[in-house]
Amino acid sequence: MASGGLQLLGFVLAFLGWIGIIISTAMPQWKMASYAGDNIVTAQALYEGLWMSCAMQSTGQIQCKVYDSLLKLESSLQATRALMVAAILLGLVAVFVAVTGMKCMKCMEDDQVKKMWMAVFGGVIFIIAGMAALVATSWYGNRVARAFYDPFTPVNTRFEFGSALFIGWAAASLAILGGAFLCCSCPRRETSYPPSRGYPKNAPSTGKDYV
């Protein structure tokens, strides 16, 4: 029962982490500027994400523009996109594999060892997905920090960490933690011996022969 509870907890955490990775990838707030230079009357904040850039006007309206060409983007942004998309796809595979190996499911009940190994394999895929998302978000955040502290970067073009980065870090951590819990359900090698049976002792010979 304890291992089953740990397995369920791991799947829930990893699944929530996978959902968080999807949300983080879709959000445009990967980096944000609190002001837009001298044009502070018409734009209060600027956001940039993996797929679009947005500007929030003083009236509260948000206008977003999708990046026109993939080839015009920086190679680092394209790599970040690829890592996040790979994390989402790996998480999708991990969901199906881990569900197959869950003890509460009816699949593969005839072979409990293989069933447990499926859960472990799903946990490993969740860990890989979480690591991909963690590398992508950390790499992007490092670029934002380096540009912010670069003295040659104009003040009105400096960006800070956006909310999508924090969601991505938290989601990647949940995916890794949940995958680790799933890996804890690894079947242990136990050698089972048949129970020893007591054999009746030979009765002492009384010297009497029975016909």
From TrEMBL:
Which species is listed as the source?
Urocolius indicus
Supply the alphabetized keyword list: Cell junction, Cell membrane, Membrane, Tight junction, Transmembrane, Transmembrane helix
The topology of this chain with respect to the membrane is:
Multi-pass membrane protein
Q: Where in the cell is it found?
A: Cell junction, Tight junction; Cell membrane
Q: What GO cellular component is one of the record's annotations?
A: bicellular tight junction
* Similarity remark: Belongs to the claudin family.
Q: Does the keyword Cell membrane apply?
A: yes
Gene3D superfamilies from the UniProt entry: 1.20.140.150
Gene coding for it: Cldn1
According to the UniProt entry, its GO molecular function terms are: structural molecule activity
Name assigned to this protein: Claudin
InterPro entries listed in its UniProt record: Claudin, Claudin1, Claudin_CS, PMP22/EMP/MP20/Claudin
Entry-linked PANTHER family: CLAUDIN
Q: What does this protein do?
A: Claudins function as major constituents of the tight junction complexes that regulate the permeability of epithelia.
Q: Does the keyword RNA-binding apply?
A: no
Q: Which residues cross the membrane?
A: 7-27, 82-105, 117-141, 161-184
Chain positions covered by the region annotation Disordered: 191-211
